[in-house]
Each structure stands twice: as structure tokens, then as C-alpha cells.
Design a protein that fits this description.
By secondary structure, the chain is of the alpha+beta class. It is built from seven helices and 18 strands. About 20% of the residues lie in helices and about 30% in strands. Strand 1 and strand 2 form a beta hairpin.
Length: about 300
């Protein structure tokens, strides 16, 4: 996009709308860019937008959005869009066909899996290759949600069944593309020992809905607006009062997702398993990656 609208609330609680061209916006002082970039929306459909600075290798500055409406004239089809839509279709079908889902935190992304490009697909199966695991489920359905939002499997009598598994990449893409996953009643297992299971609607939480008082881990998801200058914090576009510290894992994280410049993070999709809490002043929410485990976070970069 060459234009974006900045919506700011005034002291009189009115909304001030300013349209910026990307050329004008990139000429603003750095402090103004950092202040305004989280308030950008698409001028055509009103979806949250991001700003990406010009890159060192000559790529121009641009506006964009991961939240375009399907009929938005600013929405341009791409290989990335097609892949994300296919991921969303796959996960949506699993919601329909499966009784439970296993999260495979170790599953590699499409960038790191040549097998995904070469392996033939089966038209007769609605679940992708290597996406089923043998899981021991409690005998007899448990229909009531526990007070903690998840359940611990301690049942003595069990039955063996096949349950589809899925990695963070496709789960994130399905959430960004608007599947029913975040509101689903589907049981989701989050550990390899198959001890803990959650209702999907309680497990997947958009950054905008993060609650530091619920004292439970979740899979938080959304998009990244920008980072600080030192790339020590990720700032979600979905909420203006949340920070995700990455300083202790920065080098490994950037290497894992092939991030060469902070620009690569602007507008990227993000999902991570972690807990939300207040900072000391209770002015900012912090989401901490669980045990700083890099298998429990996924960043979906925008492809130029």
C-alpha cells in the first residue's frame, strides 16, 4: 500500500484521522514514526496496518496489512497468501473431522522442510501427511470445563485413538486467516506426555485479549508492529500496552527465523506459548515465552 490512515484519539475523546503517503510517513522524525505506527489502518477496508522501513539492500519503505478484508482492493494475492489460505483450510478441516488435536511444537516450518515441497498429497485424506499421532484419550467423554481452563488426564481406563497433530506455523496462519480455531470447543493437547488438554477457545488468545490476572499460560497470537531499537522487545500490533521480552534469546531467535534486520519483524505474524503478567508499575502487560523455549514460538515473516 502506498497510503495508510492514522487514527488517533484526541483529549476530547474524538478520533483524528490523518492520511499519510508512505513517502511522507517515512520522512517523519523517528520518534513520530514509533508513536504513530501502531495506529495505522488500511484506507480501503479499515484493517490494522503496519509500516516497514526501507531496507539496507534497497527495498522501498511500504505500508501493508495482514488484516485486509477479502474483497479489499488493497489486498494483492501472493504465494504467501495462497499458502496461508491452504494452511487455514487444513486446520479448519481438522476442526470438523477430529475429536482432538495435538500441538507438535517441534514441527519445522515450510522454509526448513524440503519434504513438504516434494511429498505427494493424498486427495482421499483431509489431514496432511505425518499429521496423525497415536494418543491415549480418557474413556468416556468429559464435557465440563475445569476451573483452570484446562484438564489433567488422570483417568485409569483409557482407549487408543488417532489424533491429528499440527505445528505452530499452520495454527498461526489459520488464526490470522479467520478460521474457527480461536472459538472452537475442540480439545487440544499441549504436551508430549498427553497430560494436559485445553478447549481451543481457552488456549488460543489474541494479544488484544491478554489478561495478566488469569495466571494461566496460553498460546498468544497476532502480529508484530515493531521492535525497540535494540530488538529486545516485540510490540504486538493488536494491543498498545503489551511487550514481549526477547533479549535473553535474541540471537538464537533471529537466527531460527532468518531475521537479518528489525524490518523483517514489522508486520510479521507471531504465536507463542507463555504467560501474561503486569510490570511492576502495572502500566504495561508482559508476555513471557514459556521457559524461553524456542520451540514454543513461531514468527511468520512477510515475504517481499
Amino acid at each position: 500500500m502506498l497510503d495508510a490512515i492514522c487514527e488517533l484519539e484526541t483529549e476530547d475523546h474524538l478520533t483524528a484521522r490523518t492520511t499519510y503517503s508512505v513517502f511522507k510517513f517515512q520522512q517523519l522524525p523517528d520518534d513520530d514514526i514509533e508513536r504513530l505506527r501502531q495506529w495505522l489502518i488500511c484506507p480501503a477496508c479499515g484493517g490494522k496496518a503496519y509500516f516497514r522501513k526501507a531496507s539496507k539492500d534497497g527495498k522501498a519503505a511500504c505500508f501493508g496489512s495482514r488484516y485486509h478484508q477479502a474483497d479489499c482492493i488493497e489486498f494483492k494475492p501472493s504465494a504467501q497468501k495462497s499458502r496461508e489460505e491452504q494452511d487455514a483450510i487444513e486446520v479448519q478441516q481438522q476442526l470438523v473431522d477430529a475429536k482432538a488435536l495435538m500441538i507438535d511444537f517441534s514441527r519445522k516450518s515450510h522454509r526448513h522442510s524440503l519434504a513438504n515441497k516434494a511429498a505427494p498429497t493424498s486427495k482421499s485424506s483431509s489431514i496432511s501427511e505425518s499429521s496423525q499421532v497415536s494418543v491415549t484419550l480418557p474413556a468416556g467423554a468429559q464435557v465440563q470445563e475445569s476451573k483452570t481452563g484446562y484438564q489433567v488426564n488422570t483417568a485409569a481406563q483409557t482407549i487408543e485413538t488417532r489424533v491429528p497433530s499440527q505445528g505452530l506455523e499452520k495454527l498461526l496462519h489459520s488464526l490470522l486467516r479467520g478460521t474457527d480455531l480461536a472459538a472452537s470447543e475442540l480439545w487440544v493437547y499441549t504436551d508430549s506426555d498427553r497430560k494436559y488438554r485445553w478447549r481451543a477457545k481457552n488456549l488460543f488468545v489474541n494479544f488484544a485479549d491478554a489478561d495478566p490476572l488469569d495466571n494461566k499460560p496460553h498460546l498468544y497470537w497476532g502480529t508484530i508492529s515493531h521492535t525497540d531499537k535494540a530488538v529486545s522487545w516485540l510490540n504486538p500490533a493488536d494491543s498498545k500496552d503489551i511487550g514481549i521480552p526477547i533479549d535473553g534469546i535474541k540471537q538464537a531467535l533471529l537466527a531460527q527465523f532468518e531475521i537479518e534486520d528489525k524490518r523483517d519483524l514489522e508486520g510479521a505474524g507471531l504465536i507463542l506459548f507463555g504467560k501474561c503478567f503486569w510490570n511492576k508499575e502495572k502500566t504495561r502487560k508482559i508476555i513471557q515465552l514459556w521457559n524461553n523455549d524456542l520451540q514454543r514460538i513461531f514468527i511468520s515473516k512477510l515475504e517481499d
